[in-house]
Amino acid sequence: MAKEKGLISPNDFAQLQKYMEYSTNKVSDVLKLFEDGEMAEYLQGDAIGYEGFQQFLKIYLEADNIPNHLSLALFQSFKMGHLEDTVENDVVCLSDVSCYFSLLEGGRPEDKLEFTFKLYDTDRNGILDSSEVDRLIIQMMRVAEYLDWDVSELRPILQEMMKEIDYDGSGSVSLAEWLRAGATTVPLLVLLGLEMTLKDNGQHLWRPKRFPRPVYCNLCESSIGLGKQGLSCNLCKYVVHDQCAMKALPCEVSTYAKSRKDIGIQSHVWVRGGCESGRCDRCQKKIRVYHSLVGLHCVWCHLEIHDDCLQAMGHECDCGLLRDHILPPSSIYPSVLASGQERKVSKTSQKTMDDLNLSTFEALRIDPVSNTHPLLVFVNPKSGGKQGERVLWKFQYLLNPRQVFNLLKDGPEAGLRFFRDVPGCRILVCGGDGTVGWILETIDKANLPVVPPVAVLPLGTGNDLARCLRWGGGYEGQNLGKILKDLEMSKVVHMDRWSVEVIPQQTEEKSDPVPFQIINNYFSIGVDASIAHRFHIMREKYPEKFNSRMKNKLWYFEFATSESIFSTCKKLEESLTVEICGKPLDLSNLSLEGIAVLNIPSMHGGSNLWGDTKRPHGDTHGINQALGATAKVITDPDILKTCVPDLSDKRLEVVGLEGAIEMGQIYTKLKNAGHRLAKCSEITFHTTKTLPMQIDGEPWMQTPCTIKITHKNQMPMLMGPPPRSSNFFGFLC
């Protein structure tokens, strides 16, 4: 069916999106190569053949080995009319291809509108005729269909837009008319990837949503239909048909107090519909949500009530079950509303911000509700497939949207500046270990007066730090409200962090760049770094093969098997020497292929190379201090047997690995641990040949060098509550 319609299959489209996620190229750059660059030989007028199309994909997706079935299916999807099995003499329109990919890639909607218009404006006169606009819209419809939109609803919206553009019936459209119409057609902007910013001007934060249950439009109050798509506001859950979006009432959510009377006391903000529980929190009776647009929900405390129960509700809102985390609008207000004395303090504090340009966040002051711990949330929307994006949307509703920062759009600096002087605040990082490392490094540089403790919602693939902090091995759609309640019961631990200095020797060989200068999780040389390096290279080359945690484990096992055959790091002790706190570590009686230096007891998605230790009764930190007295170095095998890993003891665990087979056995839980070599507070490696290395899962090849690892600082982290018989995170370490 897909082939008859000229569409690639859903699996092919998902594979294409994975390639695009890893590529950094832009359509406009690739197009220049075909128009007047090295790829011009493939251009036939405004068309390219199959060979030219393959070259386009190779350059644009930055992939040398795109599966033939995918490139063939894509090529045939651009052909007009009957689809033949042969492609030798067929051509496709380069403008169609470029338009399609530009709609899918990131960027501002207005830029996409202008770029796609110019693609079909071949004579560069700023005018398109109706047939050319139709071709442009066809590509938009194709993208919408791949993204699982209901194109039967989008088509009349675009047709109506075209009628408004061509007001004089001339059949032609100017660039200015096209941009003006596109910028006011909400469903089209959402399709193009509209990224709205918080303006507190009644603007909704729309996203497309397909509803698994009957839902009613907040504007026309008719049913959107089971399984049909509409638009939902992330801030207030106002829901409309695509065609009703342009007439929607303003968003009721204001994220800060705009006048003195709004400061200090938060009022309920009621919005019709959105009563997902189906039960009234006031009278406990059912809300018949399946029959019409009924019920009210408060966007701050999330209470759901009957329309008739509204009069019995008080005016003041306490922000409900999540009040400990929420910054209500009544706690955020413009600095100009502060009293004269407070304003002077504000100006003094502003001078400490390194001459930052005033933005919306710097112009606002925060006075949190007493005895609460406002939560600053950082989300990497690309982590965990589409999970990151969904988590971002959910937190924008559960909390004040000004507490939630999209890392790809804003970075962490803006959020840290906004929360700089907020007492008792906490930070939640939603992403993988790499995202957590990024936030911790930014906190280091921010020079905050008080460093807030950091929790982790694991969205990556390894999530080793999240495992050790009892936040689990990966978020899989659990109730975020329950996770936030767990965060309330968490305790602060101070995690050691370590500086890494790599001093290369003078050789003709060139090293890869060292990925980090700080260790949060672990460092290793040899066999496991070699496996990780091969894994990294293969994932860069074939990203579509590494789209799940289970696939990643299978690939890792395959690379470990081949490494055991070739043993590229055999007799590692002959290629390096190790000093711990200035004293040589004797490796002469060992035959090692790898050495791992651990700050936390988890690597590669849950492998504990140090192994389990029968824990004596008492405090872990105190026990470790007693076993090692005040010594910075422990090498006695008998003492090492009883040492328990502690991420706060300012010491590292050093483990020797005998080979890939042993690594695989530990990884698959068939063996308990590697060979315990030492606990120490400082370690130095001297290498004599190029070896694979890794820091926190990021591998590289390093020429002969000296590597010094020393204690940097401690970062307050939040340890999750002890696991219950039924927990929300799967397997815990």
TrEMBL record:
<keyword id="KW-0863">Zinc-finger</keyword>
<comment type="subunit">
    <text>Monomer.</text>
</comment>
<dbReference type="GO" id="GO:0005509">
    <property type="term" value="F:calcium ion binding"/>
</dbReference>
<comment type="pathway">
    <text>Glycerolipid metabolism.</text>
</comment>
<keyword id="KW-0418">Kinase</keyword>
<dbReference type="InterPro" id="IPR001206">
    <property type="entry name" value="Diacylglycerol_kinase_cat_dom"/>
</dbReference>
<feature type="domain" description="EF-hand">
    <location>
        <begin position="108"/>
        <end position="143"/>
    </location>
</feature>
<dbReference type="InterPro" id="IPR016064">
    <property type="entry name" value="NAD/diacylglycerol_kinase_sf"/>
</dbReference>
<dbReference type="Pfam" id="PF14513">
    <property type="entry name" value="DAG_kinase_N"/>
</dbReference>
<keyword id="KW-0443">Lipid metabolism</keyword>
<comment type="function">
    <text>Diacylglycerol kinase that converts diacylglycerol/DAG into phosphatidic acid/phosphatidate/PA and regulates the respective levels of these two bioactive lipids. Thereby, acts as a central switch between the signaling pathways activated by these second messengers with different cellular targets and opposite effects in numerous biological processes. Also plays an important role in the biosynthesis of complex lipids. Can also phosphorylate 1-alkyl-2-acylglycerol in vitro as efficiently as diacylglycerol provided it contains an arachidonoyl group.</text>
</comment>
<keyword id="KW-0007">Acetylation</keyword>
<feature type="domain" description="EF-hand">
    <location>
        <begin position="153"/>
        <end position="188"/>
    </location>
</feature>
<dbReference type="InterPro" id="IPR000756">
    <property type="entry name" value="Diacylglycerol_kin_accessory"/>
</dbReference>
<dbReference type="GO" id="GO:0005524">
    <property type="term" value="F:ATP binding"/>
</dbReference>
<dbReference type="GO" id="GO:0005886">
    <property type="term" value="C:plasma membrane"/>
</dbReference>
<dbReference type="InterPro" id="IPR037607">
    <property type="entry name" value="DGK"/>
</dbReference>
<dbReference type="InterPro" id="IPR002048">
    <property type="entry name" value="EF_hand_dom"/>
</dbReference>
<dbReference type="GO" id="GO:0007200">
    <property type="term" value="P:phospholipase C-activating G protein-coupled receptor signaling pathway"/>
</dbReference>
<keyword id="KW-0067">ATP-binding</keyword>
<keyword id="KW-0677">Repeat</keyword>
<keyword id="KW-0808">Transferase</keyword>
<dbReference type="InterPro" id="IPR038199">
    <property type="entry name" value="DGK_typeI_N_sf"/>
</dbReference>
<dbReference type="Pfam" id="PF00609">
    <property type="entry name" value="DAGK_acc"/>
</dbReference>
<keyword id="KW-0479">Metal-binding</keyword>
<dbReference type="GO" id="GO:0006654">
    <property type="term" value="P:phosphatidic acid biosynthetic process"/>
</dbReference>
<keyword id="KW-0963">Cytoplasm</keyword>
<comment type="pathway">
    <text>Lipid metabolism; glycerolipid metabolism.</text>
</comment>
<dbReference type="GO" id="GO:0046834">
    <property type="term" value="P:lipid phosphorylation"/>
</dbReference>
<feature type="domain" description="DAGKc">
    <location>
        <begin position="370"/>
        <end position="504"/>
    </location>
</feature>
<feature type="domain" description="Phorbol-ester/DAG-type">
    <location>
        <begin position="267"/>
        <end position="317"/>
    </location>
</feature>
<dbReference type="Pfam" id="PF13499">
    <property type="entry name" value="EF-hand_7"/>
</dbReference>
<keyword id="KW-0106">Calcium</keyword>
<dbReference type="GO" id="GO:0005829">
    <property type="term" value="C:cytosol"/>
</dbReference>
<dbReference type="InterPro" id="IPR011992">
    <property type="entry name" value="EF-hand-dom_pair"/>
</dbReference>
<comment type="similarity">
    <text>Belongs to the eukaryotic diacylglycerol kinase family.</text>
</comment>
<dbReference type="GO" id="GO:0008270">
    <property type="term" value="F:zinc ion binding"/>
</dbReference>
<dbReference type="InterPro" id="IPR017438">
    <property type="entry name" value="ATP-NAD_kinase_N"/>
</dbReference>
<dbReference type="InterPro" id="IPR018247">
    <property type="entry name" value="EF_Hand_1_Ca_BS"/>
</dbReference>
<dbReference type="InterPro" id="IPR047469">
    <property type="entry name" value="C1_DGKalpha_rpt2"/>
</dbReference>
<dbReference type="Pfam" id="PF00130">
    <property type="entry name" value="C1_1"/>
</dbReference>
<dbReference type="GO" id="GO:0047649">
    <property type="term" value="F:alkylglycerol kinase activity"/>
</dbReference>
